[in-house]
Amino acid sequence: MEKKVDKAIITVVGKDTVGIIAKVCTYLAENKVNVLDISQTIVQDFFNMMMIVDLKEKVKPFDQCAKELEQLGEEIGVAVKCQREEIFNKMHRI
To answer: In three state form, how does the secondary structure of the chain look?
Structure first.
């Protein structure tokens, strides 16, 4: 029987600076959150990144990870939002 994949969507938006991707990915790796897909763009010095991550092996509860990612974003001057995939999909239906 196949296990359900527990996925989340992480968005990062803000003024571009060195190390944004590195800091977010380091946090994820330290907490055993696997990056499945990543897309990032920079438009006139504004950074935008969207990640799809796998939470199956995470070491902390989802809510704690989401809060810590938000705090990390504040420390590096960007807005980081983490949502469960099913919530993200429901919020962005047409």
So the answer is: CCCCCCEEEEEEEEECCCCHHHHHHHHHHHCCCEEEEEEEEEECCEEEEEEEEECCCCCCCHHHHHHHHHHHHHHHCEEEEEEEHHHHHHHCCC
Q: Is the four-CA dihedral 32, 33, 37, 41 of positive or negative sign?
A: negative
What is the pTM assigned to this prediction? Answer: 0.86
Residue 94 has pLDDT above 60, yes or no: no
Indicate the residue type of 94: I
How do residues 50-66 score in pLDDT, each as one tens digit? 999 999 999 999 999 99
